[in-house]
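Page 37, top half.
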Amino acid sequence: MELGRLKHYLEHYLGKEHGNKFGKNMEKRRLGTSDVQITPILMGTWQAGKRMWVGIDDTESIKAIRTAYEAGITTIDTAEVYGEGHSERIVAAALADVRDKVEYATKVFANHLKYNLVIEACENSLKNLQTDYIDLYQIHWPSGSFGSEIVPIEETMRALNDLKTQGKIRAIGVSNFSRTQLEAASQYGRIDSLQPPYSLFWRYVETDTMPYCIEQQISILAYSPLAQGLLTGKFAPGHKFAAGDNRTDNKLFQGDNFVHAHEALEKLRPIAKSHNCTLAEIAIAWLISQPQTNAIVGARHPEQALTNAKAASIKLSPQELEQIDAIGRIVTDHLDNNPVMWNWS
């Protein structure tokens, strides 16, 4: 279904409401030291791009994004590389009519980090998102990733600073950067966010970049906060993903790591039951209770978006936070020190 028809379908589905359909207001947090305010739970849209995912439907993606917004999640994370702009266009189809009530975060990929390519990529994202500004523009992966050309960070930052001066972006962020790389980028301009993989089962950031982020007031936007669905508890031991699903390469779904994960999930279940909520909600609630940390959570369907939003209202006691922390280490204590979650060839 082409995007114009999808938008018409969406308007019919939602009755063209512009308010908060579910009557919930999620308390916002300041992004770094910028004037951008974000929700502690962000809507992730990697899956909406379809590439590296299977079974994704555009209509369902749009409904999920809109439902997240109506449930109080107003900050949406996407990237130019997610389906070569398809995810950005889906976001626009879902939210263009409420652009002034949402925050867009998108990313420039590692092969577009030369000055002119950053400018061009930003213009393409603005067009895809049907907007004249981006609230948070991020370097998706460091220069040199995936065999890309090495570009000095000062050149990339010069482009980002110029875009910020022009009002085309409001804040600058980085993703998948080590502490050393984050410190280097910070020499050439204000970095207001870091986007690392971070969940109860994947915690490399806590010993690498988190101390620096706390010191410098840099927001952490955790991606894969449910360990790509593992923390939902819906994947039984021995689960096999369909061909083309990126989770086939995720270390957490492999070998002993998968076994340890199921041991940990069984220990989490009583805590979730005591709060009358799902495993996923407990995992998100724990994560957004960590210093400087917000969670980017994807959803294929509206029901998942609603569940994600509910996590913001769960209050965990200090004792519960410690207990959950210890349960997570059943998995993380057995992992190596490689910060990349996938065994990509």
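Page 37, bottom half:
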Amino acid sequence: MFKIYQYPPLLAGKLIKRYKRFLADIRLASGEIITAHCPNTGPMTGVCVPGNLVQVSQSSDRKRKLPYTWEMIEVKDTQPTWVGVNTGLPNRVVKLALEQQLFPELAGKYDYIRTEVKYGLDGQSRVDFLLTGDDSQSPIYLEVKSVTLAQGKIALFPDTVTTRGQKHLRELMALIPKARPVMLYFINRGDCLAFAPGDRCDPVYGELFREAVAAGVEVLPYRFEITPQGIYYLGKAEFLMKQPVIRK
């Protein structure tokens, strides 16, 4: 387990409610009720549970409308687990890992890291990372997705219909064979050992996902443990091609 990111000092509290996608009312341990910015615009299925413990950061920037940012929430599945809420963090953490050549499947395959590079079928999309080396190495187009939904010990993406995610899969497939397209799934919780596409939340994404894998898009699901002290890299998760059917 390798600590890759250090949180600033955090404040503990409990979630009262989330609303208007970007807002969350939280009761701090001191008893004060605050409104924090919620950086996750998705439904946060299975994660957004009122009454659960949360951690928030506080900014000193007076220009911000809301000084607090909701960073994580504790879920209680098989065991209490912190789940990352701040979807702005995975790309920052992945960049730190890339700078340290931390991912074995990518290490030594690039010398330069560029972010938010235009690409795609219409030329208007931006890939999260473009990794390049000398002329003998294929450029690596790396897209990052934050994963918070879980079914037992299996992390699932997406947790809702995502036309944007579907578009990214199509655009990565279009890069073959001139480049090495990679989907990196950032498993934003430490209790999952495997990863699968969330077919039941978005069947179209699931089919596109398997089409992309068959075409040569590489899938790298990496595990991270989220704690109030920091984020720890745990290595690669087992990769499943389909969401398992749970028989009751």
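Margin note: The two ends are 35 Å apart (CA to CA).
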